Amino acid sequence: MKPIILSADGDSVVYQVPDRVAEHLEEYCIQFCDRWLRNSPHARKYRIQGGFCYNEADFIEYLNRYVFPEEPSVMVENLGWTELGKDLPEEYRELPYFNF
After folding, report:
1. Is this structure's pTM higher than 0.70?
2. 3-state secondary structure 37-95
3. What is the pLDDT of residues 5-32, one digit of tens each?
């Protein structure tokens, strides 16, 4: 498990995720946004009036339920508002980051 930072135009949140996710974060996030949300019957609750409504916690739920149920991701720390990851504490500045 490796740490990453996710946000959805709000607080930046540190999560521990499977190594493969941390190493290919953008790929997994785009797969969630572009493929799973549009095509999976399990994603209906995120489709609202012709658009999508979700956040980083929904991505973590997707990973835990459908992609890596044997390696559950967990929240480590909410860092609060940062301007797209620019104002991160020193110890988190090199982590993979994705904003939904």
Report:
1. yes
2. HHHCHHHHHHEECCEECCCHHHHHHHHHHHHCCCCCCEEEEEEEECCCCCCCCHHHCCC
3. 999 989 999 999 999 999 999 999 999 9
Residue 53, token pair as written in the block: 């409504």
Q: Which residues face 14 on adjacent strands?
A: 5, 77
Cα Rg of the chain (Å, integer):
13
CA count, 13 A, side-chain hemisphere, 4: 26
Strand, coil or helix: what is 25?
helix
Q: Under 8 Å CB-to-CB from 33, ≥6 apart: which residues?
A: 52, 100
